[in-house]
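Final report, Chapter 2: Outcomes

The project's central promise was a pipeline that accepts a single protein chain and returns its three-dimensional structure in a standardized token representation, suitable for archiving and comparison. That pipeline is now operational. To close this chapter, we reproduce one record exactly as it appears in the project archive, with the input sequence first and the structure output second.
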Amino acid sequence: VSWLLIHDVCISDSGSEARVFATSFVMKLVRTFTQVSILNKFERMVITQIGKLPVLSKHSAMVKLILRECGLLEELPHLTLQRLQMLDLSGSINFKTFKDDSFDKLQKPKTLNLSETQVANLPTLSKCRELRHLILRKCLKLEELPHLNTLEKLELLDLSSAISFKLFKDESFGKKEELHELNLSETQVVQIPSLSECYNLRKLILTGCLKLKILPNLDALSRLIVLDLSGAISLIEFHHQSTGLKLLTST
């Protein structure tokens, strides 16, 4: 067995008693697996309706940990899963916090999806050098990101509708030749770090960035095909000489 799938366990009855029973059942099941060391052999675990996750061994075979729409989940234990490539908490609307050093032991994650959670801060991601997709859609309390300059393999950064987001800690995104899409729509950013080494950026989406005043120089982005500035009503001016742009929206 390499997968554990526990999904919609209380779908037949939405009452509170049924939900409590279902949550209790899931926790007992997960604890049982932990006690017999089976849980650490799973490569993929998909769970909904769980309020607390047990500590998983650093020797676990876990590659994908999918906790979508776990409405009762508020935090995770320390993560030491050395093989983990995907962590998906999207739709877990009460999830708030990671342990401070949660990502220090994670060197292989390729996808981190925290969309529609309550996270206000992220732990440092500097060790996650394999990260490709950082998805933070509708993270309504997130105001800033940790340093991202070591994430040279990043392909997608999506902060769309993270309406409290204001600040990047980096003055430059650094060397990110794989970055294809940057979506900051409906955030509170005033300016964006330099993109001069993001040569392959194709989509820069800044829809509804009401406070955006300054764009970095975009001349190095020869492959940029979509630049959406619609609703960026505070933007004064920008310079871009690329002839490859297929869609420019600024109304």
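Archive annotation: The chain is about 10% helix and 15% strand.
This record, like all others produced under the grant, will remain available to the consortium after the project formally closes.
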